[in-house]
Amino acid sequence: MTRDLVNFIYELYHEDSEFRRKVESYHRDTKSTLILTVYTKEKAREEVEKFKHIIRDKVVLELGAGIGILAMEMAKYAKFVVAIEKDPAWSWIFVRNHLYEKPRNLIFVFGDAEEFLKLFDSFRPDVVVIYSKSAIDHFIIMALAFRPKAIVLNGKLIFEEE
Question: Could you give the number of structural domains in the chain?
């Protein structure tokens, strides 16, 4: 079902010029490319296997959470996960397909990480996780603003507090 919804979004983008215009305008502002990086439970398990030792029993922030599949897998190991997704299409799929299987130690936020940081400026995750093919530099700058102890980018530890 999730794959069908993702394909629906992509098909709508390619077939409906008005939808495409709105999406492109939105994505120019958000620096997103409408490319979903992790969208199956199998892929999420495979990816989290690479860094579960880093997030075990930690407070984790995921920036650019997509449809939430990776966040749900991380919640199996982490003490707590906050997943932030700015794209309404991906947030809609999370709510539509995964809301009722969401673990209690996961909060899924539809919104902007910068605005979240302004509102909750004392929030300090242990680890920030980023899985993205777009706006990597922006995500890393954002991750550092949260002052985590570690940053995982696409499955690899790229920052660890000394």
Answer: 1
74 has pLDDT over 90: yes
Containing domain of residue 25, as a range?
2-160
pTM: 0.88
* Bridge partners (DSSP) listed for residue 59: 80
DSSP class per residue in the chain? -HHHHHHHHHHHHHH-HHHHHHHHHHHHHHT--S--S--SHHHHHHHHHHHHHHHTTSEEEEES-TTSHHHHHHTTTSSEEEEEE--HHHHHHIIIIIGGG--TTEEEEES-HHHHHHHTTT---SEEEE--SS-HHHHHHHHHHT--SEEEETTEEEEE--
